[in-house]
Amino acid sequence: MEVKKFLKNVPLFEDFSDDELEKLLLICKEKSYPKDSIIFQKEDPGNFFFLICSGRVKVIIETEEGKEGILAILYPTEFFGEMSLLDGEPRSATVVALEETNVIIIERNEFLSLLYKHPELALKILKTLSLRLRKANRQIETLMFLDASGRIARLLIDIARDRGKKVDEGVLIDLEFTRQELGNLIGVSRETTIRILKSFEEEGILSIERNHIIIKDIKELERRV
How many domains does the chain have? Predict the structure, then answer.
């Protein structure tokens, strides 16, 4: 992978000059994680900042019984691991590779030095943290006030807005999640997720194929929320 070319397309570093990118390359290391491997666990010390080059990761918390809740799914050009570097506390969640995932890592002291030299980076990170907090608040609201059908409707709407593609039939969502992962994002069992998706399909709200969902009537989904 051409790391410099990749970094130029990362919003976090879009304002860097070529000279600044060259200096950034000196502190970047590349690492690959196989599918289902743990990148770090909750309570681990936070020594590195991670930037996703390819693949996907899930940010999770687990109960003592092993039940999993997914806090977020992150994609290429998104970053994680910054919280522990900023506050010095252990990792607050576990991060797992959903597929083979390549990342750039920056060691803690190098990362903090980078922030001191480029205060605009801190503002961009703060903006991202603010957006993630808003999503977390929305997720809490969803869990508190919506039934299972409403939760799935809102999740599909959010995915469509973030990553959907307009097609003739409606909005296409690439199905990058298992039914279990979809349910874990909103605290709904796999069986209930399958049942509600099937119900939406029978009502003509969406169609389901092996690798994607087409939302045909997003306004009706919005009415379910």
Answer: 2
